[in-house]
Q: What sequence folds into this?
């Protein structure tokens, strides 16, 4: 009796949580606290590994001027070996589901086991010095915390998606010390829209995550505080061109990584590719220690010292090569921070190059570095407002933010028009996924043909004559009739008007009039699959069959598209916090 009472109380609490906006904000704060804690913990563990292996201070690996003990670089192939052992614990038949894919296809359900594998592999890769960032692990953990809490509380699909975006964005905000940028990361990258109903929960999560990192002593910042920049009106067209140039660099970087990964997978020793990749990274890291790890130290060092253009281009080339090799050879991580470092190097080099070519100090190298940083990163990561706010929160420089906004919008528009993917969606595309953003498409998978079909279609035996067909199906009663073979198996569709053609003899076989033979829809086919089939065969009706090919019902294109429009309207209403 007591058990039933507790169950009723819990169900009442769940109903309140589902319908209360204040409850959603409170849950988002809890998600932010969890995201901040996992962000701090993962950074502490990965940087602790670097400190043990390389003997450097936390966050300073890529700031090394030289490698005093080259034998320590053997940690790179050793890390590849450890990564291989960690990867054995994962399911080899499928790729882990990340937060973008979870929000786009699975209604915010982030598998906990997948998240543990992603985080472990990323920490090993970064901790042993491979040229990848921890941002993928941060967002995966933050999204997984949100998904776990939301599912445990039985929250609605749209609320769960918002919380996953809040958790992932909070992790980015905590990692960079930029809660506004983190919030917009959640909106632009993980939720896929600026949803009014999501603003308060996402911001609450981002702020609470930042508080957690600060309480644990985290001093996350992108660039050194107090950095000076100079922006003039004449700089705007130059920086617009720089933004487009950075988009070209970003697209080339992503395509190069995909090409090399495809080539590596064809090698005879492909299963040993993390170890081989570690070996290839040794000479790169020895020549250019700034290519190690994500590059936090290198970014701050280069912005402070303003090295010459030859040095900048050398580091740019070697860092880009190291990142491409690390990812192509199986190290786990992302290109977020690598793109920030590469963009800052390219921006500084461009400014110095223009100044040398003209003989005049036309561009401020620091300003160009920050503009290039944001423009290249927006091509790789996506999210123009996220990157613009990241620069604003790092520098507190509003004039600089104006020119950054213009550059990232130019870069983003160019990349969308000429490529259409961010790095995460590009990798999903290479795996065969059709998604290009976190916009919710998973609901289409939850509406099968079985729920859409008309269950009592007009069916005539495929062995019937035209006369028998006319006797069974009066003219005007239905426009199409399904033909059933032995055992009720689908044999095609006949237009009723065609069977009443006066030129047809009554004893002729009605099966001769059958259309779309062999074209049917499985009962469990999703709405997306059904629409694709209608587009492919260009018919108005499709038979629905079971696993044995027996007729279960019929779908009409008009009804299916009307249901799609209704569901889209419901999704839009929920996105904007309107009751449906």
A:
């Amino acid at each position: 009796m007591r058990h039933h009472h507790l169950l009723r109380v819990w169900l009442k609490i769940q109903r309140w949580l589902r319908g209360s906006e204040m409850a959603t904000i409170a849950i988002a704060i809890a998600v932010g606290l969890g995201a901040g804690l996992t962000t701090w913990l993962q950074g502490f563990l990965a940087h602790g590994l670097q400190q043990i292996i390389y003997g450097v201070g936390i966050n300073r690996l890529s700031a090394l001027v030289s490698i005093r003990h080259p034998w320590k670089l053997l940690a790179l192939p050793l890390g590849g070996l450890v990564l291989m052992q960690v990867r054995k614990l994962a399911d080899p038949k499928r790729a882990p589901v990340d937060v973008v894919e979870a929000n786009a296809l699975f209604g915010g359900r982030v598998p906990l086991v997948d998240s543990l594998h992603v985080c472990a592999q990323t920490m090993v890769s970064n901790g042993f010095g491979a040229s990848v960032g921890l941002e993928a692990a941060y967002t995966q953990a933050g999204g997984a915390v949100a998904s776990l809490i939301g599912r445990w509380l039985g929250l609605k699909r749209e609320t769960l998606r918002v919380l996953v975006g809040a958790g992932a964005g909070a992790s980015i905000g905590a990692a960079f010390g930029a809660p506004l940028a983190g919030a917009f990361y959640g909106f632009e990258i993980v939720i896929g829209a600026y949803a009014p109903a999501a603003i308060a929960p996402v911001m609450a999560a981002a702020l609470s995550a930042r508080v957690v990192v600060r309480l644990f002593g985290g001093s996350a910042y992108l660039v050194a505080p107090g950095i000076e920049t100079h922006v003039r009106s004449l700089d705007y067209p130059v920086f617009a061109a720089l933004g487009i140039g950075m988009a070209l660099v970003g697209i080339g970087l992503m395509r190069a990584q995909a090409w090399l990964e495809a080539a590596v997978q064809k090698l005879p020793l492909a299963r040993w590719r993390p170890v081989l990749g570690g070996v290839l990274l040794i000479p790169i890291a020895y020549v250019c220690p700034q290519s190690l790890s994500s590059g936090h130290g290198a970014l701050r060092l280069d912005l402070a010292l303003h090295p010459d253009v030859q040095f900048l281009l050398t580091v740019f080339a070697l860092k880009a090569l190291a990142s491409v090799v690390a990812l192509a050879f199986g190290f786990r991580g992302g290109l977020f921070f690598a793109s920030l470092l590469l963009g800052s190097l390219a921006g500084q080099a461009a400014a110095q190059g223009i100044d040398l070519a003209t003989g005049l100090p036309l561009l401020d190298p620091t300003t160009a570095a920050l503009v290039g940083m944001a423009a290249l990163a927006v091509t790789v990561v996506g999210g123009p407002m996220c990157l613009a706010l990241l620069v604003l929160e790092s520098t507190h420089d509003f004039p600089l933010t104006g020119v950054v906004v213009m550059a990232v919008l130019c870069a983003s528009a160019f990349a969308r028009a000429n490529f259409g993917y961010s790095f995460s969606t590009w990798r999903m595309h290479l795996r065969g996924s059709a998604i290009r953003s976190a916009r919710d498409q998973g609901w289409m998978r939850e509406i099968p043909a079985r729920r859409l079909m008309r269950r009592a279609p007009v069916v005539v035996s495929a062995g019937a004559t035209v006369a028998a067909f006319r006797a069974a199906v009066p003219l005007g009663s239905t426009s199409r009739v399904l033909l059933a073979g032995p055992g009720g198996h689908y044999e095609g569709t006949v237009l009723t008007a065609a069977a009443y053609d006066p030129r047809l003899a009554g004893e002729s076989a009605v099966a001769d009039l059958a259309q779309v033979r062999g074209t049917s829809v499985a009962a469990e086919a999703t709405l997306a699959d059904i629409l694709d089939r209608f587009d492919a065969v260009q018919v108005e009706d499709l038979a629905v069959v079971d696993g044995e090919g027996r007729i279960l019902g019929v779908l009409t294109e008009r009804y299916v598209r009307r249901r799609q429009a209704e569901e889209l309207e419901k999704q839009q209403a929920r996105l904007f916090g309107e009751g449906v």
Summary: The radius of gyration is 29 Å. The domain at 2-220 is CATH 1.10.3080.10 (Clc chloride channel). Strands lie at 459-461, 480-484, 490-495, 520-522, 541-545, 551-556.
